[in-house]
Structure formats: structure tokens, C-alpha cells
């Protein structure tokens, strides 16, 4: 069976895009030297700002972003796919798109995806957190060819929404990319089980590149970048929160095998939902 090497890069991004790019370059070199043909970086790779004002001070227009231009050069130089997990892209309403960008081996942008699901929550005893105050959610699921695989693009909180992954799989995706900046408490509780569930449900490989450790903006992220096969088995994991590179071999034929053994996608049915009970 054909095998291909892929890599997840774990980072500890700060608020300075230039410093983050300088930290990323040697990690990309390590991944390519290990033979990776597709490399994924974490959510907020280029700038992990403290708030909307902090992002506004450092975010560049998408078409003129110098860090993205450099990533394109590196993709072309190494002849590989480089997938920037996400960066903040300024929008006309003062908010940002949390945008994932895939570069092809020719150095050109092959696909881009704006994070659909935003974390807006009010939890008893804690301050309300509204990601939608800073970001505007996307509206379109995205797939893209990457060698023998079709990539399904998601970002962090998206992993809690199985319908997105089912839609990606039904559109042909066989490798799900989930760049993330998971908090430590939710990472300890949910990281592995959610990612393994998305792999099992769709019979797909899942690659999740994570932010890890204590960041300059005060946030602490979980790390534990991971690659999971279509049967839900962990192929490889960085069992820590330090910057690093995870490389693993994956096999396209295992996707068809898993989906043949448990044809959940083919067996899925639409159904009527019950009416809501009165409150």
C-alpha cells in the first residue's frame, strides 16, 4: 500500500507575526527533512493576540501579508503542501476572519477556509466569552486535493460539530485537518475523545496541530498535537505542550477499508425532528 508522510507542527505563538514566522521556519525545515509532503501548523500561527485591539495592531491585509508570502516561498522551495492552520485577517466591519490557508507545492494558495463555528458562551460564575466580538464566522465548508488525499478543513472549536465533518467526508474528504489552540482544562477533558470520534464517525484520518504552553497574552494551551487513523487509533502524538514536530506515515487505502467495514456515511439517513417542548 502507498504511504505518505504528513506532519503537525506544535507552536507557542505570541503577538508578533515576525517572531512567530522566525519560530516556524526551523520547524518547517525539520518536517521537510523528515520527508513530510503535507505540513499543518496550529490555529493563530501568525499572531496570538490578547484581544481585538491587539490583533488590529499587527494583522496585515490578506493580499499583502508578508508572512504568508514567505510561506508561499517555502512551499515552492520544498515542493510540498504547507497548511497554515489559521491567521487573523482584517475584515471591513472591524472584526477578523480566522482563516486557514493551504499552499500548494507551486507556492500558490490552493485553498482557504474561514472558521465557521465561534465560541460564544456565558458560564455561571465566569465572564462571558464571545469569539464573535472579534471574529466573523465563515459560511462555507472547504475541501482541497493534497496528493492522494482530499483534505477537509476545520479549525479548533469546529471539532465539536460532527455535521461539518460528515459534510466534508461526503464531499470526498479523507484527511481532516484540525489546527487548534485548545485551553488546558478542555484539552485534558475533550481533546482526544473529540478528535478520535471525528475520525471514527467519518472513517478519515485526522491531523490536529496545536498551540501549547503559556503564551504572552496570558492564555495557556494544551498542546498534544496528534494524528489519528480512520479506525480511531492514534498514529502519533506529541505528549507535551512544547514546540515540536510530529511526523507520521499514513495510507490512503485505510480510508476505504474503514468506510467499508462500517459504512456509516452510506447508511446515514435524514429524519424529522421532534417539536420543541414548551418551556
TrEMBL record:
**Keyword Hydrolase in record:** yes
The family database entries (Pfam families) matched by this protein are listed as: CN_hydrolase
Q: Which GO terms describe its molecular function?
A: hydrolase activity, acting on carbon-nitrogen (but not peptide) bonds, in linear amides
Keywords carried by this UniProt record: Hydrolase
Q: Where is the CN hydrolase domain?
A: 4-252
Q: Cite the InterPro entries for this sequence.
A: C-N_Hydrolase, C-N_Hydrolase_sf, Nit1/2_C-N_Hydrolase, UPF0012_CS
The entry assigns this protein to a family as follows:
Belongs to the carbon-nitrogen hydrolase superfamily. NIT1/NIT2 family.
Name under which the protein is recorded: Carbon-nitrogen hydrolase family protein
Which lineage is the organism of this entry classified under, starting from the top rank? Bacteria, Pseudomonadati, Pseudomonadota, Alphaproteobacteria, Hyphomicrobiales
Amino acid at each position: 500500500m502507498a504511504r505518505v508522510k504528513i506532519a503537525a507542527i506544535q507552536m507557542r505563538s505570541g503577538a508578533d507575526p515576525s517572531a512567530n514566522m522566525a519560530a516556524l521556519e526551523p520547524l518547517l525545515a525539520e518536517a521537510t527533512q523528515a520527508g513530510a509532503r503535507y505540513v499543518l501548523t496550529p490555529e493563530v500561527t501568525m499572531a496570538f493576540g490578547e484581544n481585538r485591539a491587539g490583533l488590529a495592531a499587527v494583522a496585515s491585509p490578506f493580499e499583502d501579508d508578508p508572512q504568508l508570502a514567505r510561506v508561499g516561498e517555502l512551499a515552492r522551495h520544498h515542493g510540498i503542501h504547507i497548511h497554515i492552520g489559521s491567521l487573523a485577517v482584517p475584515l471591513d466591519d472591524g472584526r477578523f476572519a480566522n482563516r486557514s490557508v493551504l499552499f500548494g507545492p507551486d507556492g500558490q494558495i490552493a485553498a482557504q477556509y474561514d472558521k465557521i463555528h465561534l465560541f460564544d458562551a456565558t458560564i455561571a460564575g465566569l465572564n462571558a466569552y464571545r469569539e464573535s466580538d472579534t471574529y466573523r464566522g465563515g459560511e462555507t465548508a472547504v475541501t482541497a486535493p493534497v496528493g492522494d488525499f482530499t483534505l477537509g478543513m476545520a479549525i479548533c472549536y469546529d471539532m465539536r460539530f460532527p455535521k461539518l465533518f460528515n459534510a466534508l467526508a461526503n464531499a470526498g474528504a479523507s484527511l481532516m485537518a484540525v489546527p487548534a489552540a485548545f485551553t488546558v482544562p478542555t484539552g485534558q477533558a475533550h481533546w482526544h475523545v473529540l478528535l478520535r470520534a471525528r475520525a471514527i464517525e467519518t472513517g478519515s484520518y485526522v491531523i490536529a496541530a496545536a498551540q501549547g504552553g503559556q503564551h504572552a497574552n496570558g492564555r495557556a494551551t494544551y498542546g498534544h498535537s496528534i494524528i489519528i487513523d480512520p479506525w480511531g487509533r492514534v498514529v502519533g502524538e506529541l505528549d507535551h505542550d512544547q514546540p515540536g514536530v510530529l511526523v507520521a506515515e499514513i495510507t490512503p487505502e485505510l480510508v476505504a477499508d474503514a468506510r467499508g467495514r462500517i459504512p456509516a456515511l452510506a447508511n446515514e439517513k435524514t429524519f424529522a425532528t421532534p417539536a420543541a417542548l414548551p418551556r
